[in-house]
Design brief:
The termini are close together. By secondary structure, the protein is α/β, with parallel strands linked by helices. Helix 2 (44-54) runs parallel beside helix 3 (70-79). A five-stranded parallel sheet has the order 2-1-3-4-5, with helices on both faces. The protein has helices spanning 21-33, 44-54, 70-79, 97-105, 118-128, and strands at 13-17, 37-41, 58-62, 88-92, 110-113.
Length: 131
């Protein structure tokens, strides 16, 4: 493996679902710099239609969203046999034990507290996505 490819995230499809434009833009800018292909959605409904089209390698979901929250969206993704192996990372400003437990129940793979750092975001991708 060349050192350019070592640790490189080039070509990894990352979906970021958040109703906050700032969070989506921040994550998108950061991930594109690392070579990721980024798909964004403003809520769970928009995300579910895009997942089928783009088949992301990893999905980051904000918990607090209108219409379909992060827990519901994660549960729907994990219940679909085509996507149940896709890593789902929940993003939240709440860092409670109950929230983490509920995240586990719906099948999330990890839980990041906002504001997340570049290292946390990239670390999650490197941990869960094997190219």
């Amino acid at each position: 493996m060349s050192e350019a490819a070592e640790g490189s995230l080039t070509g990894i499809k990352v979906m970021v679902i958040d109703d906050s434009k700032t969070i989506r833009r921040t994550a998108e800018t950061l991930l594109k710099k690392e070579g990721c292909e980024v798909i964004t959605a403003t809520d769970g409904f928009e995300a579910l239609s895009k997942i089928t089209d783009h088949r992301p390698d990893i999905i980051f979901i904000d918990i607090m969203m209108p219409r379909l929250d992060g827990y519901q969206t994660c549960a729907l993704i994990k219940r679909n046999k085509s996507y149940k192996e896709t890593p789902v990372i929940l993003l939240t400003s709440k860092d409670g034990l109950f929230d983490r437990a509920r995240g586990r129940i719906v099948g999330s793979d990890q839980y990041l507290t906002k504001p997340f750092t570049r290292e946390e975001l990239l670390g999650a991708i490197k941990q869960y996505v094997r190219k």
